[in-house]
Write a structure and sequence with these properties.
The protein is built from two helices and 16 strands. The strands form four sheets. Strands 3, 5, 9, 13, 14 and 16 form a six-stranded antiparallel beta sheet that branches. Strands 8-10-4-15-6-12 form a six-stranded antiparallel beta sheet, with no helix packed on it. A two-stranded antiparallel sheet has the order 1-2. The protein folds into two domains: 30 residues, no CATH class; 188 residues.
Length: 230
Amino acid sequence: MAIEARNILLKADGEEVSQIGSPLGARMVTREIDEMIARGMGRVANTGAFSTGLVTGGDGTAIALAQPQLVIGVPVGYTIRPIRIGTQVQMGDIAEGNESEILIAVDIYGVWDGSGTVVQEDPVNMRSNLGEGSACRVCSAVTEDLTTTPAGGAAGAPVLDLELDRHASEWHVLTSSTSENHMNHVYEPRYPPFIVGPATLFVLFGGDVAPVGGFVQAAWVEGRSEEFWQ
């Protein structure tokens, strides 16, 4: 059964004002992002396959901006707001002083143009009855450098203009015990940024010790830019 919200009239300082209400007339207080998800504007993209993690890009070296683990390219005329990005990285054999990182960053001027050797991803709508698809261009497992293209400009190497979140670890080996070598990180901003196209969001992990594999779950809302600030 479809449930549709409707406007109800309230009295405020002697004037009638409209507020969203349930079909039965009850007042509803919802977050803006909840409403956008209900309207079909939420998306989720995942990397890794079941129990097999992703191993590309910065594997065995410092993280490589041109070879990220997840890419969300936002085209001109569209905006996204990231609401949750979870990353789990299974580390390999570590040595004293090894370092590893997770980085979430944005090229605020250039959109990924389809370049590089990648695995194309088809995001799933967060309202499950609406299936798959996105206005954004999404990929993972980049193994050959990609480029981004600014509006009216030429393609070039991506630039880290906006760093949203980071997790950095330095490993110390305790020979008398057994440790579980992994990084788990969740980026869940209280105030999600407005990433306005052309722009590209990157999720990267790597370090000077090769991961066994990694997984990323990214959720965002998207739409025409005018839908966000009319």
